[in-house]
Write a structure and sequence with these properties.
Elements (H helix, E strand, L loop, with lengths): L1 E4 L2 E4 L3 E2 L1 H8 L3 H5 L6 E2 L1 H4 L1 E6 L17 H8 L4 E2 L9 E2 L2 E6 L5 E6 L13 H14 L2 H4 L4 E8 L2 E6 L7 H4 L9 H6 L8 H4 L3 H4 L9 E7 L3 E6 L12 E6 L3 H10 L4 E2 L4 H6 L6 E7 L3 E6 L12 H10 L2 H8 L4 E2 L14 H7 L5 H10 L6 E8 L2 E2 L2 E2 H13 L3 E8 L1 H9 L6 E6 L6 H9 L1 H5 L6 H12 L3 H18 L2 E14 L7 E2 L4 E2 L10
Parallel strand pairs: 5-14, 5-15, 19-22, 19-23
Antiparallel strand pairs: 1-2, 3-4, 6-7, 8-9, 9-11, 10-11, 12-13, 13-14, 15-24, 16-24, 17-23, 17-24, 18-24, 20-21, 25-26
C-alpha cells in the first residue's frame, strides 16, 4: 500500500523510495549506485529548500578563487564576512562577524571588533587569528579575488577579539569590498587540516581548493556537503549558527539549464524557486495559484568584449571597425523582444544605480543603434564591404535568455551592415579559460556581476585584467581617472569623473553592455518574500523562510 504526500510517492511507513529521492535531487541511477541510502524520510522534502537555476558556470566553490556569476549565492549560504549589506541597500554597511569598526589610531586602516561567541560549522570558535589567516590566504593565493584587495598592506591581530586591516592608500575603499562572499572568515584550523595555506607561499603551497569544492569551512547558515558539476550543490543546516537555527534542514541547488524544465519544475513543486525563466514563460505563471513572481533590478550586466589584437583579427584592430559594431547592435530590440522589457542598459562598465551611472547618462554617453553611422565608420576604417569575426559564448542562460539566442540576435543585427559574425558556442569552463587567458580571437559574450558593490572594482577591472584580455593598452590618463574617482570624497566631483571614465571607455569600443537585467523570479507560495539582492550574490539564503516561520 502506498499513500501520496507532497507530490512524492511514499510507503506506508513514511519513507521515500530511492527513485523519488533521485527525482527530488535531479540525479540518475549512477548517483544512486554511488551510495544513496535505501530510504529517506518523506518529511525531508518539506524541510528542504530546492532552487532551480543554471549553474553551469560554477567551476569552483573556493571563495578565494571563484570569479563566476552564480557561485556567490552558494558561498553566502556557507560563509559569513566581517560586514555585509542588506538586500536593497547597497550603501549602508552592516555588521556581521564584526560588530563595530573604526579607523585605526594612525588613520592608515580599519579596526574591527569581533562578535562574541561565534562558532564555525565545525564547532571551532572564531577568533581574530582566523580573520588574519583568511585575509592573508586571499592576498597570497594571488587569484582574481586578491586583486580586489591589492591595496591592503597587511592584517594585524590586536587581541583575540580585535583585528586591524592596514591599507597602502587609506583613501581607497575597503568596507564595500570585504562585504562580499569572496572575503569570508575561514575556520583556519579546519582548513589547514585540508591543505589551506595563508603564508606568502600560498600560491604554490595551498591545496585546499579540491576539498572546498565539496565542503565548507565557514560560519554561515548552511554547510556545503556536496557539489556535482552541472548537476547540483547540496547543503545541510549549520546548527552552530550564531543568528539562530536556519529554517531548512537541507538546501539543494539543482542545475536546470533548460528554462522549460525550470517552468515544469516550479509548477509541479519539484523546486521552490526558479531563476531562469524567459518572458513568455513568466507570462504563463501570472494565473498560477501556487506560484508568484518577484522582481529585482540587478547590478549585473551582460556584455560583449572585442579583442583589438590585429594578429587575431585584422579588422578588429581598427577602432572604427569596433565602433561600427557598437552602432549596429539593436539594444532596444534585445531588451524589448528577448527580455520582455525586463532590463535596463548602462553606458559601459558601471551599472545603473551607482555613482555616475543613470539611464540618462547611458543614453547620452553609450552606444545606440545607428546603421548609417555604422556604415560610415566601416568606410572610414577602409572596410566598406564589411568584415568577418567570431563571437564566442557559453552554453548557458542568463536572465532567462540563452547566450546562443543573444548571439543570433547580434549576428542578424550586424548582417544589416555586412559585418559577418560567426557564432562559436563553448563549454563554460573552456570559454572562461580562453577569455581570461587573453586568447579570445574575436568577440566574447559574457556577464559581469559585482564581486562587491564598489565602483572601483568594476572600473579597475575594465582598465586592468579585462583590458589585457582584449589586448587594449589603456592610456595612463584613463587609469588615473579611475583612481582619482575612487578616492574623491565630493559626490558631485566623483560622479563627473565616473562619467568621463565611461566616455573614454565607450570611445575605445572594446566593451558593449547589452543589458542589465531586471530579474523575475518564480517562487512557490510556500515561501515568504524572498530576500533578493543585487549585491552580487542574488539571494540571502538564511532569510529564505517558509510562510509559517
Amino acid at each position: 500500500m502506498t499513500v501520496r504526500k507532497d507530490r512524492h510517492e511514499t510507503t506506508n511507513d513514511g519513507w521515500m523510495s530511492r527513485r523519488d529521492v533521485a527525482k527530488l535531487l535531479g540525479i540518475g541511477g549512477a548517483a544512486l549506485a554511488a551510495g544513496l541510502p535505501e530510504r529517506v524520510f518523506a518529511q525531508t522534502r518539506r524541510n528542504t529548500l530546492v532552487i532551480g537555476i543554471d549553474i553551469s558556470d560554477t567551476v569552483t566553490l573556493d571563495p578565494a578563487r571563484q570569479a563566476q556569476y552564480t557561485p556567490p549565492m552558494s558561498l553566502l549560504a556557507a560563509y559569513d564576512m566581517l560586514v555585509t549589506m542588506a538586500p536593497g541597500d547597497y550603501i549602508t554597511i552592516r555588521p556581521q562577524l564584526a560588530t563595530k569598526w573604526e579607523r585605526t589610531p594612525d588613520g592608515k586602516g580599519w579596526r574591527f571588533t569581533l562578535r562574541d561567541n561565534v562558532k564555525f560549522a565545525s564547532g571551532n570558535p572564531m577568533t581574530a587569528a582566523d580573520v588574519k589567516w583568511s585575509m592573508d590566504r586571499v592576498l597570497y593565493l594571488g587569484d582574481q579575488t586578491s586583486q580586489y584587495i591589492s591595496h591592503v598592506e597587511r592584517t594585524e591581530v590586536v587581541d583575540a577579539k580585535t583585528v586591524d586591516i592596514i591599507l597602502k592608500d587609506p583613501r581607497q575603499p575597503l568596507m564595500t569590498i570585504i562585504a562580499a562572499p569572496g572575503f569570508p572568515v575561514y575556520d583556519s584550523k579546519l582548513l589547514m587540516q585540508h591543505g589551506g595555506d595563508a603564508s606568502r607561499e600560498a600560491k604554490t603551497k595551498d591545496s585546499a581548493t579540491t576539498w572546498l569544492n565539496n565542503n565548507s569551512a565557514g560560519a554561515g547558515a548552511y554547510k556545503l556537503v556536496r557539489w556535482e558539476r552541472n548537476a547540483q550543490i547540496q547543503f545541510v543546516r549549520n546548527d552552530n549558527y550564531w543568528r539562530g537555527k536556519p529554517p531548512f534542514e537541507r538546501v539543494i541547488i539543482r542545475h536546470i539549464g533548460d528554462s522549460a524544465a525550470q517552468l515544469l519544475s516550479i509548477r509541479r513543486g519539484d523546486v521552490d524557486i526558479a531563476f531562469n525563466l524567459i518572458p513568455e514563460q513568466i507570462a504563463t505563471l501570472k494565473a498560477e495559484p501556487n506560484v508568484r513572481l518577484e522582481a529585482l533590478t540587478s547590478l549585473d550586466f551582460v556584455y560583449m568584449a572585442l579583442t583589438q589584437n590585429p594578429e587575431f583579427n585584422k579588422a578588429l584592430g581598427v577602432k572604427e571597425a569596433r565602433q561600427a559594431i557598437g552602432h549596429a547592435i539593436d539594444y532596444d530590440g534585445i531588451v524589448k523582444n528577448l527580455l520582455g522589457g525586463a532590463a535596463v542598459r548602462c553606458a559601459n562598465f558601471l551599472p545603473i544605480g551607482v555613482s555616475g551611472s543613470t539611464e540618462e547618462i547611458a543614453r547620452r554617453v553609450g552606444y545606440n543603434q545607428d546603421l548609417d553611422k555604422a556604415r560610415q565608420l566601416l568606410q572610414k576604417a577602409g572596410l566598406a564591404d564589411g568584415f568577418e569575426f567570431e563571437i564566442a559564448y557559453g552554453n548557458a542562460a542568463i536572465a532567462g535568455v540563452t547566450y546562443q539566442t543573444l548571439g543570433q540576435k547580434i549576428q542578424a543585427d550586424l548582417a544589416r551592415v555586412n559585418i559577418r559574425a560567426k557564432l562559436t558556442p563553448m563549454d563554460q569552463v573552456n570559454l572562461r579559460t580562453t577569455y581570461t587567458g587573453n586568447r579570445a580571437q574575436g568577440g566574447v559574450l559574457t556577464f559581469w556581476n559585482p564581486p562587491a558593490v564598489e565602483n572601483l572594482l568594476w572600473a579597475a577591472a575594465s582598465v586592468e585584467r579585462v583590458a589585457r584580455r582584449v589586448h587594449w593598452p589603456v592610456p595612463p590618463e584613463l587609469d588615473k581617472i579611475v583612481r582619482d574617482a575612487a578616492a574623491e570624497q565630493d559626490p558631485k566631483k566623483q560622479a563627473d569623473l565616473w562619467v568621463e571614465y565611461q566616455k573614454q571607455t565607450v570611445d575605445n569600443a572594446n566593451y558593449f553592455v547589452l543589458f542589465q537585467p531586471i530579474y523575475q523570479i518564480a517562487v512557490r507560495s510556500n515561501l515568504a518574500k524572498l530576500p533578493l539582492t543585487a549585491a552580487g550574490w542574488q539571494l540571502d539564503m538564511y532569510d529564505v523562510k517558509p510562510v509559517s516561520s
